[in-house]
Amino acid sequence: MAAWFAERIIDTGRLPLFCFFAGMVVGFVFIRTSTRLIRAQVRWWPGNVEPGGLHIHHVVFGVAFMIFFGVVSLAVPDDLAGWRAVAAAGFGVGTALVLDEFALILHLQDVYWSEEGRASVNALFVVTAVTGLLLVGFQPFVVEDLNLVLHDAPAARFWAAAPLLGLLALAVVTVLKGKTWTGLVGLFVPILLIVGAARLARPRSPWARWRYRDGRRRGTQKLTRAQRREARWREPVNRAWDRVQNVIAGAPNQPDPPPPTPPNGPEPPTRSGRS
Fold it and tell me: Pro residues bias: where (predicted)?
Protein backbone atom coordinates (compact mmCIF):
# COMPACT_ATOMS: atom_id res chain seq x y z
CA MET A 1 0.00 0.00 0.00
CA ALA A 2 2.83 2.39 0.86
CA ALA A 3 4.55 1.63 -2.45
CA TRP A 4 1.31 2.25 -4.37
CA PHE A 5 0.76 5.54 -2.53
CA ALA A 6 4.30 6.68 -3.25
CA GLU A 7 4.08 5.69 -6.91
CA ARG A 8 0.55 6.94 -7.75
CA ILE A 9 0.18 9.93 -5.43
CA ILE A 10 3.54 11.33 -4.32
CA ASP A 11 5.60 10.68 -7.46
CA THR A 12 2.85 12.07 -9.69
CA GLY A 13 2.59 15.30 -7.71
CA ARG A 14 -0.93 14.57 -6.47
CA LEU A 15 -0.15 14.75 -2.74
CA PRO A 16 -1.80 18.20 -2.29
CA LEU A 17 -4.86 16.97 -4.19
CA PHE A 18 -5.00 13.87 -1.99
CA CYS A 19 -4.75 16.00 1.16
CA PHE A 20 -7.50 18.28 -0.14
CA PHE A 21 -9.71 15.24 -0.82
CA ALA A 22 -8.99 13.75 2.62
CA GLY A 23 -9.60 17.08 4.36
CA MET A 24 -12.91 17.51 2.55
CA VAL A 25 -14.11 14.02 3.52
CA VAL A 26 -12.99 14.41 7.15
CA GLY A 27 -14.56 17.87 7.36
CA PHE A 28 -17.88 16.61 5.97
CA VAL A 29 -17.99 13.62 8.34
CA PHE A 30 -17.19 15.83 11.32
CA ILE A 31 -19.68 18.60 10.59
CA ARG A 32 -22.52 16.23 9.69
CA THR A 33 -21.88 14.24 12.88
CA SER A 34 -21.89 17.49 14.83
CA THR A 35 -25.14 18.78 13.34
CA ARG A 36 -26.89 15.44 13.86
CA LEU A 37 -25.80 15.37 17.50
CA ILE A 38 -27.08 18.94 17.91
CA ARG A 39 -30.35 17.97 16.23
CA ALA A 40 -30.70 15.00 18.61
CA GLN A 41 -30.04 17.41 21.55
CA VAL A 42 -27.23 15.28 22.96
CA ARG A 43 -26.25 16.91 26.25
CA TRP A 44 -22.52 16.20 26.19
CA TRP A 45 -22.01 17.77 22.74
CA PRO A 46 -21.09 21.50 22.78
CA GLY A 47 -23.89 22.51 20.40
CA ASN A 48 -24.15 25.58 18.17
CA VAL A 49 -21.77 28.52 18.40
CA GLU A 50 -24.01 31.35 19.60
CA PRO A 51 -22.05 34.21 21.20
CA GLY A 52 -24.49 36.78 22.50
CA GLY A 53 -27.41 34.83 21.03
CA LEU A 54 -26.08 35.15 17.45
CA HIS A 55 -26.01 31.77 15.68
CA ILE A 56 -22.80 31.60 13.68
CA HIS A 57 -23.25 29.06 10.89
CA HIS A 58 -20.32 26.81 10.07
CA VAL A 59 -20.15 28.26 6.56
CA VAL A 60 -18.49 31.28 8.24
CA PHE A 61 -15.73 29.06 9.63
CA GLY A 62 -15.45 27.38 6.23
CA VAL A 63 -14.88 30.69 4.47
CA ALA A 64 -12.25 31.62 7.08
CA PHE A 65 -10.49 28.25 6.57
CA MET A 66 -10.49 28.65 2.79
CA ILE A 67 -9.10 32.19 2.92
CA PHE A 68 -6.39 31.36 5.46
CA PHE A 69 -5.19 28.11 3.93
CA GLY A 70 -5.60 29.45 0.39
CA VAL A 71 -3.23 32.32 1.20
CA VAL A 72 -0.84 29.89 2.91
CA SER A 73 -0.76 27.65 -0.19
CA LEU A 74 0.13 30.69 -2.32
CA ALA A 75 2.81 31.89 0.09
CA VAL A 76 4.56 28.56 0.75
CA PRO A 77 7.42 27.82 -1.70
CA ASP A 78 6.96 24.89 -4.06
CA ASP A 79 9.84 22.93 -2.50
CA LEU A 80 8.06 22.74 0.88
CA ALA A 81 5.77 19.89 -0.15
CA GLY A 82 4.74 19.03 3.40
CA TRP A 83 3.45 22.49 4.20
CA ARG A 84 1.66 22.68 0.86
CA ALA A 85 -0.05 19.38 1.72
CA VAL A 86 -1.12 20.78 5.11
CA ALA A 87 -2.53 23.88 3.42
CA ALA A 88 -4.42 21.71 0.92
CA ALA A 89 -5.92 19.64 3.75
CA GLY A 90 -7.06 22.78 5.58
CA PHE A 91 -8.54 24.15 2.35
CA GLY A 92 -10.42 20.85 1.94
CA VAL A 93 -11.88 21.15 5.44
CA GLY A 94 -13.02 24.69 4.67
CA THR A 95 -14.55 23.54 1.38
CA ALA A 96 -16.55 20.87 3.20
CA LEU A 97 -17.88 23.41 5.72
CA VAL A 98 -18.92 25.79 2.94
CA LEU A 99 -20.51 23.16 0.70
CA ASP A 100 -22.38 21.65 3.66
CA GLU A 101 -24.35 24.89 3.80
CA PHE A 102 -24.49 25.46 0.05
CA ALA A 103 -28.30 25.46 0.22
CA LEU A 104 -28.20 28.28 2.78
CA ILE A 105 -26.11 30.37 0.39
CA LEU A 106 -28.36 29.46 -2.54
CA HIS A 107 -31.67 30.28 -0.81
CA LEU A 108 -30.34 32.95 1.58
CA GLN A 109 -32.21 31.31 4.45
CA ASP A 110 -31.63 28.44 6.85
CA VAL A 111 -32.95 25.40 4.97
CA TYR A 112 -30.41 22.98 6.44
CA TRP A 113 -32.90 20.32 7.58
CA SER A 114 -35.52 20.96 4.91
CA GLU A 115 -35.99 19.29 1.54
CA GLU A 116 -34.16 22.20 -0.10
CA GLY A 117 -31.17 21.46 2.13
CA ARG A 118 -30.41 18.35 0.10
CA ALA A 119 -28.76 20.66 -2.42
CA SER A 120 -25.85 20.97 0.01
CA VAL A 121 -25.29 17.21 0.10
CA ASN A 122 -25.59 16.96 -3.68
CA ALA A 123 -23.07 19.77 -4.18
CA LEU A 124 -20.54 18.15 -1.85
CA PHE A 125 -21.00 14.75 -3.48
CA VAL A 126 -20.38 16.29 -6.92
CA VAL A 127 -17.16 17.99 -5.80
CA THR A 128 -16.00 14.83 -4.03
CA ALA A 129 -16.68 12.69 -7.10
CA VAL A 130 -14.84 15.03 -9.48
CA THR A 131 -11.90 15.32 -7.08
CA GLY A 132 -11.78 11.54 -6.74
CA LEU A 133 -11.63 11.10 -10.51
CA LEU A 134 -8.78 13.61 -10.74
CA LEU A 135 -7.01 11.84 -7.90
CA VAL A 136 -7.01 8.43 -9.60
CA GLY A 137 -5.60 9.94 -12.78
CA PHE A 138 -8.57 10.89 -14.95
CA GLN A 139 -8.36 14.23 -16.71
CA PRO A 140 -11.22 16.17 -18.29
CA PHE A 141 -11.03 16.05 -22.06
CA VAL A 142 -10.97 19.87 -21.98
CA VAL A 143 -7.50 19.83 -20.40
CA GLU A 144 -6.06 17.23 -22.76
CA ASP A 145 -7.58 18.65 -25.94
CA LEU A 146 -6.71 22.23 -24.99
CA ASN A 147 -3.07 21.28 -24.56
CA LEU A 148 -3.11 19.76 -28.06
CA VAL A 149 -4.74 22.87 -29.49
CA LEU A 150 -2.21 25.22 -27.89
CA HIS A 151 0.73 23.20 -29.17
CA ASP A 152 -0.56 22.80 -32.71
CA ALA A 153 0.53 24.99 -35.57
CA PRO A 154 -1.61 28.13 -35.93
CA ALA A 155 -3.11 26.92 -39.22
CA ALA A 156 -4.21 23.63 -37.64
CA ARG A 157 -5.63 25.05 -34.43
CA PHE A 158 -9.08 25.64 -35.88
CA TRP A 159 -9.51 22.02 -36.94
CA ALA A 160 -8.02 20.79 -33.66
CA ALA A 161 -10.38 23.00 -31.64
CA ALA A 162 -13.53 21.94 -33.51
CA PRO A 163 -13.96 18.58 -31.69
CA LEU A 164 -13.29 20.30 -28.36
CA LEU A 165 -15.99 22.91 -28.99
CA GLY A 166 -18.38 20.19 -30.14
CA LEU A 167 -17.90 18.19 -26.93
CA LEU A 168 -18.34 21.32 -24.82
CA ALA A 169 -21.62 22.00 -26.65
CA LEU A 170 -22.76 18.43 -25.94
CA ALA A 171 -21.88 18.93 -22.25
CA VAL A 172 -24.04 22.06 -22.11
CA VAL A 173 -26.96 20.29 -23.80
CA THR A 174 -26.64 17.31 -21.44
CA VAL A 175 -26.78 19.53 -18.36
CA LEU A 176 -29.70 21.54 -19.77
CA LYS A 177 -31.54 18.25 -20.25
CA GLY A 178 -31.34 17.72 -16.50
CA LYS A 179 -28.57 15.09 -16.55
CA THR A 180 -26.06 16.78 -14.27
CA TRP A 181 -24.15 13.67 -13.27
CA THR A 182 -23.92 12.49 -16.89
CA GLY A 183 -22.59 15.89 -17.91
CA LEU A 184 -19.96 15.94 -15.17
CA VAL A 185 -18.73 12.38 -15.68
CA GLY A 186 -18.88 12.97 -19.44
CA LEU A 187 -16.10 15.53 -19.06
CA PHE A 188 -13.90 12.53 -18.30
CA VAL A 189 -15.69 9.97 -20.53
CA PRO A 190 -16.88 11.90 -23.62
CA ILE A 191 -19.05 9.05 -24.98
CA LEU A 192 -21.48 9.79 -22.15
CA LEU A 193 -22.00 13.30 -23.51
CA ILE A 194 -23.07 11.93 -26.87
CA VAL A 195 -25.56 9.57 -25.22
CA GLY A 196 -26.83 12.21 -22.77
CA ALA A 197 -27.34 14.86 -25.42
CA ALA A 198 -29.10 12.48 -27.82
CA ARG A 199 -31.60 11.01 -25.37
CA LEU A 200 -34.78 12.60 -24.07
CA ALA A 201 -34.55 15.38 -21.51
CA ARG A 202 -35.92 15.01 -18.02
CA PRO A 203 -39.48 16.44 -17.85
CA ARG A 204 -38.64 19.24 -15.36
CA SER A 205 -35.39 20.27 -17.02
CA PRO A 206 -34.85 23.63 -18.80
CA TRP A 207 -34.62 21.80 -22.14
CA ALA A 208 -38.04 20.21 -21.62
CA ARG A 209 -39.57 23.57 -20.69
CA TRP A 210 -38.19 25.15 -23.86
CA ARG A 211 -38.66 22.34 -26.36
CA TYR A 212 -41.41 19.99 -25.16
CA ARG A 213 -44.18 22.42 -24.26
CA ASP A 214 -44.63 24.50 -27.35
CA GLY A 215 -48.09 23.17 -28.17
CA ARG A 216 -46.92 21.09 -31.10
CA ARG A 217 -47.85 17.44 -31.25
CA ARG A 218 -44.27 16.23 -31.41
CA GLY A 219 -43.30 18.26 -28.33
CA THR A 220 -46.28 16.89 -26.40
CA GLN A 221 -45.35 13.34 -27.35
CA LYS A 222 -41.77 13.84 -26.20
CA LEU A 223 -42.95 15.28 -22.90
CA THR A 224 -45.26 12.30 -22.35
CA ARG A 225 -42.44 9.87 -23.09
CA ALA A 226 -40.09 11.77 -20.79
CA GLN A 227 -42.64 11.69 -17.95
CA ARG A 228 -43.22 7.97 -18.47
CA ARG A 229 -39.48 7.29 -18.47
CA GLU A 230 -39.03 9.44 -15.35
CA ALA A 231 -41.70 7.50 -13.47
CA ARG A 232 -40.34 4.13 -14.55
CA TRP A 233 -36.59 4.60 -14.18
CA ARG A 234 -35.67 7.83 -12.43
CA GLU A 235 -38.11 7.92 -9.54
CA PRO A 236 -37.01 4.52 -8.10
CA VAL A 237 -33.39 5.69 -8.37
CA ASN A 238 -34.29 8.99 -6.70
CA ARG A 239 -36.00 7.18 -3.82
CA ALA A 240 -32.95 4.97 -3.34
CA TRP A 241 -30.69 8.02 -3.48
CA ASP A 242 -32.88 9.76 -0.89
CA ARG A 243 -32.44 6.80 1.45
CA VAL A 244 -28.67 6.94 0.99
CA GLN A 245 -28.68 10.66 1.75
CA ASN A 246 -30.80 10.08 4.85
CA VAL A 247 -28.30 7.54 6.16
CA ILE A 248 -25.27 9.72 5.43
CA ALA A 249 -26.55 13.21 6.15
CA GLY A 250 -29.81 12.76 8.08
CA ALA A 251 -33.41 12.88 6.93
CA PRO A 252 -35.00 16.30 6.33
CA ASN A 253 -37.76 17.58 8.57
CA GLN A 254 -41.28 16.82 7.44
CA PRO A 255 -43.45 19.90 6.75
CA ASP A 256 -46.06 20.73 9.34
CA PRO A 257 -49.51 19.30 8.51
CA PRO A 258 -52.22 21.80 7.61
CA PRO A 259 -54.64 22.73 10.40
CA PRO A 260 -57.78 20.55 10.58
CA THR A 261 -60.88 21.83 8.84
CA PRO A 262 -63.99 22.26 11.05
CA PRO A 263 -66.78 19.69 10.41
CA ASN A 264 -69.07 22.38 8.96
CA GLY A 265 -66.39 23.86 6.74
CA PRO A 266 -64.25 26.91 7.31
CA GLU A 267 -65.80 29.66 9.42
CA PRO A 268 -66.79 32.80 7.51
CA PRO A 269 -64.59 35.81 8.18
CA THR A 270 -65.93 38.14 10.85
CA ARG A 271 -66.58 41.77 9.97
CA SER A 272 -64.92 44.36 12.12
CA GLY A 273 -65.31 48.12 12.30
CA ARG A 274 -67.42 50.79 13.87
CA SER A 275 -71.11 50.11 14.28
Answer: 254-269
